[in-house]
Structure formats: C-alpha cells, structure tokens
Amino acid sequence: MGKWAWFAWIVAVVAMAGSLVFSEVMKFVPCSLCWYQRIAMYPLVLILGIGVFYEDKRARLYALPLAFIGWLIALYHIIEQNIPAASQFSVCTSGVPCSAKYINWLGFISIPVLSFTAFTLIIVGLLLARRSAK
Description:
Elements (H helix, E strand, L loop, with lengths): L2 H23 L6 H22 L5 H24 L28 H23 L1
C-alpha cells in the first residue's frame, strides 16, 4: 500500500490514542458527537493496520467511506460549537452538551477540530496512496 497508507494508519493511531488520553487520563466526558467520531476512527486503526501489514490495497475501499463519515460528523461538531444557532439542531440532548469546549488551544483548536484534522489527513493519505499505486 505504500508510505501514504502508513501515514494514514499512523494518524489514526495517534488520533485514537489522543481521544483515549482526553477521556481516560484527563477525564473529559465525551459528548454524543465525540462518540460518533470515535466510532468512525477506532475501526480505521484496525482496517488500515491490517491493510498496511498485509499490503492489501482493498483496505482503502473500506477505510475511505468510514473516514469521510467521521469527517462529516467532525465538521458538523465544529459548526455546532462555533455557531450558536446550530445548537438548536443538536444531537446532544442529555449529558455533556456538544457545544462544550474542553480545550481551546490558540483560540480555535478544539477536540472536534483535532478530529476533523485527523480525518482530513487520513482521507488525503488514502487518496495519495491510491494515486501512487497506479
């Protein structure tokens, strides 16, 4: 699968580890949208890991739709955090509100922004892996 697939897998591993640090070490309680993003990210570690290890080009076919779904969820989460009018359509009706910002690095980097960035890098890595395989 090549170096870009390795890149995508490493990004997925780091993103999964980061989410576990936020919840298990720093004790941040994930909201519903955070859980959905995790549901999209965690299998990518396994799918891309197996694909890279066995050099299976078909892993991209399974990973790309999952990464795109996670990307869309992260984008919606960013919108909900930063545009107050979007909160009226929130999926977080109980527990931690999806608009809560546990971190705010440099004034704009929140957990959904980190997730969005990871999904973007994975998608780009997978598309570049496909291109370099041709």
